[in-house]
Amino acid sequence: MRLAIFFSTLALSTAALANPSLKIPNDVSLYSLNMLNPKVDSSLFGNNKSVELNEGWNQIVFKYSPSFMVREDLKSVYSDIIIAKFYVEDGEVTFSLPEFKNYNLAQANISPLVWSLKSQQQANLQFAQDVLPSNGVQLGRNYNEDARQYNIQGGPAAVSVSYVTTKVNGDDVTREANQASVSQVKSSNSTAFSQWQTLYLNATPKVQQQMKQWLTEQN
Fold first, then answer.
1. Concatenated DSSP letters for 173-196?
2. What secondary structure, in 3-state letters, does 140-161 show?
3. Helix 2-16 and helix 205-217: axis angle, to 10°?
4. For residues 180 and 207, what is the distance between their CA atoms, to the nearest angstrom?
5. Cβ distance 199 to 187 under 8 Å?
6. Model's pTM, two decimal places?
């Protein structure tokens, strides 16, 4: 019985440690997340798309491009390429974007883009933003590199850059991470104790207190 309760608590603790996420509307193109290609999770049914965030500071590069029927043609209006940073601890973050009645109104009002980010409780998240500079027309633009250069040069939406060399498919690659990237700890599968220990060390103070309280109640 206690073993079942233990693993039930372990599962709840794991859920509590789940990273926050960002919901992506269909008319938003997310080009870069923390100077890396976003790993977008798309729902098999419906239009829901989301990407996992770091617990802490995150930086995104995106474009908003709503579409309208003009006579018999579908036309899109494009915002500037926005680079933004924001802080989040948990839950699902959503975009709040302007809704234009027609194509002409969108053309006239999409730049500068008035937008915001909402927490899971629909509270406004604080963020800093900027327009990501470009060198004219760029085919196959590397938004990760552009974000890295922006961070090096500095700006209101800049984050600190560190260089981490890792191995991907046997080849050396350079990956960039910001100062608030959360270290991903692999839970050991050898014993339940090592799993518990790993979860405890990586838990928030609130979750750690709940775990200690549960252990105390078992005595």
1. EEEEE-TTPPP-PPPPSS-HHHHH
2. CCCHHHHHHHHHHHCCCCCCCC
3. 170
4. 20
5. yes
6. 0.67
**Helical H runs in the chain?**
2-16, 103-109, 143-153, 192-202, 205-217
Q: Give yes or no for a cis peptide into 112 (omega within 30° of 0).
A: yes
Q: Is 20 helix (H, G, I), strand (E, B) or coil?
A: coil
Give exposure, 51-85, as e/b (b: 16+ Cβ within 10 Å): bebbbebbbbbbbbebebeeeeeeeebebbbbbbb
pLDDT grade for 163, boundaries at 50, 70 and 90: very low
Helices 192-202 and 205-217: crossing angle, nearest 10°? Answer: 140
Q: What are the residue ranges spanned by the domains of the chain?
A: 1-19+182-219, 20-181
Q: Per residue in 2-30, pLDDT tens? A: 544 444 554 444 444 578 999 999 999 99
Encode pLDDT of 142-153 as tens digits.
999 999 999 999
Half-sphere exposure of 165 (CA within 13 A, CB side): 3
Report how far apart, in Å, the C-alpha atoms of 81 and of each of 112, 117, 134, 186, 212 are.
10, 16, 9, 36, 47
